[in-house]
Amino acid sequence: MKTLRRVHLYLGCFFAPLLLFYVVTGWYQTVNPDRRKGVSDSHDLVSRLSRVHVEQYYPTESSTGYSTHLFRVLIVIMANALMATVILGIILAFRTSRNKWPVWLSLALGIVLPVILLWLGQKHD
């Protein structure tokens, strides 16, 4: 149990900055319908950071090309670590809770609520 907590702690702390970056830039893209398409359109910092989120490179005027391989490898590692951290968090929630039904209810709501909201957002003619 102690080892699980320690792994969860270190994975969470290591990937927290990158996860926050992806949450913030993803949020920006969700609420901002004005999508910059070219490098020359990415003038402000937020637009450039959003480009990292979508295209995996930071646009600059001086570069002639980009290689996204190394950054994509980091993102794959981050995604796997996030999945592991979430699974560890669920395991810890069950192991440390005397009453398991709130944990089950939270998990069920975390699955059902997004599905319901997506269904409610559909327009039918």
Explain what this protein looks like in three dimensions.
- The mean pLDDT is 79.
- It contains 4 helices and no strands.
- It is flat, with a radius of gyration of 19 Å.
- α1 (2-31) crosses α2 (45-55) and α1 crosses α3.
- The protein has one domain.
- The protein has 125 residues and is mainly alpha-helical.
Strand content: under 5%
Main beta sheet, described? none
Strand tally: 0
Q: What fraction, in percent, of the residue positions are helical?
A: over 70%
Anisotropy-based shape: flat
SSE order and pairing:
Blueprint lengths: L1 H30 L13 H11 L13 H28 L4 H20 L5
Helix pairs in contact: 1-2, 1-3
Key terms:
125 residues; 4 helices; mainly alpha
What's this entry about, in short?
The chain contains four helices and no strands. The protein is mainly α.
